[in-house]
């Protein structure tokens, strides 16, 4: 497999500058596969290795966890199953705290599942002198590369400099030097290419006035699947977790918050959960839990992304492009045989429960892609999918600060009733945020002599591709599965109907993945499976609507849905697809 990967080096890399450890992952990804092929460097975990994903993690698990939450008094109840809440629950459970984690939707169904899918230090924040943020994020990126080799993968970027435009070559080279300096050098160091060499590396990139380009390194991850892995690891460490459970109100006594009244959104039942401490990690919905506040805590900004056919755009690598119109940094990223373009950054004042891309958002990103790659000529008809999310940025003073200039630092709030809330930050820095929050929880519980959480691996271990091919899969499917599962996990589900067969022609997803999603990934709805577990919503031109009824029917047999529940799930998914395709007819952009 190494030889096969190396033969693709002519696609635009200087192969000599990539470590042997990261090279197979990177080259396979650039060829259009999202799998991994590196053994990576593993930090040892306290219990001698990564927890194997072998236990049931299903609707039955959820029911058992909910029942247990009602029986016990938790040390800490975490509200919000995005990356921050999941990280807090994982950290707390691994320190031995009795921990509960709830989300009113699915895990990563909010902001954390609608990112640029990057694990990065934030190169652009150097422009506003946020050296501490960049240093922290770059080092957290490097930690994740070590700890989660099956989930987080190195990714090189081309960032061009043009004559007469900012940032100029000198400033850009200095910025890349600082970026390397602030990291732990886990990734290959920057490289500077002059004009012709830059064009040779990325032939279809705009050439007029091209002065050169830097090559620097960050990383990528499937955001929703990463969050799921953190949730699963929290549960493996003893946390009680449940999706589709909404906190309807907090309970209090004379000493402060004592827990919450919750509603099971699947069956409508209510229950009370008692906890010594409650953490609010609900992102843009933070103030719904905090209650009345003098001024809103959060200034939400909307980020939109689009996916385009990669052969149409023509990018060989990830490209960081500074737009001419507003000097924003837009990413043009390889995502298998697609190109991911993002993101916008605009204030949002609408319904935070209903955030969709509109025509103006999509046109902005199409213009950026066409500016970077003039031969692309992409329009709305070329968009495979589009999605939008809200960033929970902490509000400071008046709203006259540009959206992109708002601080990405996180903040922790402790209300008079003892409710702990956390907001801001970045996906990449979730571990550090979680550590700070759990430190505070332990102090408030009177446990001052705590020990920091030990480093540990996350997600499945990286196994050789041959082990997946030995299960009877062709190479493209094996590569796809290698980036998601352990071989034993796949093997357990190969007796199901058509388990090895593709769900859709031309895609590597197989029917066994639906079974895994339901039985071992706590998927409860059709949307959970097609959007966050499999990702077919993003990667197919019809958002997998054509296969939705069949996927739902398979789920119905596994979860024992009745006909009305099956029909409702399909209709809800149809509405989601319709909303996310509405931009095609939006003439307001």
Quick tags:
589 residues, alpha+beta, FAD/NAD(P)-binding domain, D-Amino Acid Oxidase, Chain A, domain 2, Helicase, Ruva Protein, domain 3, 10-stranded mixed β-sheet, 8-stranded mixed β-sheet, 34% helix, globular, disordered N terminus
Give a short summary of the structure:
Among the domains are: 59-112 and 225-297 and 407-444, FAD/NAD(P)-binding domain (3-Layer(bba) Sandwich), CATH 3.50.50.60; 307-391, D-Amino Acid Oxidase, subunit A, domain 2 (D-Amino Acid Oxidase, Chain A, domain 2); 465-585, Helicase, Ruva Protein, domain 3 (Orthogonal Bundle), CATH 1.10.8. Helix content is 34%, strand content 20%. It has helices spanning 2-6, 23-30, 59-71, 83-94, 131-147, 169-182, 195-201, 223-236, 286-290, 310-313, 359-372, 430-444, 465-469, 475-482, 487-491, 512-520, 526-533, 536-539, 548-559, 563-581, and strands at 73-79, 99-102, 118-119, 153-162, 191-194, 210-220, 240-242, 245-253, 256-264, 270-280, 298-309, 318-322, 329-335, 338-342, 346-347, 385-394, 411-414, 420-423.
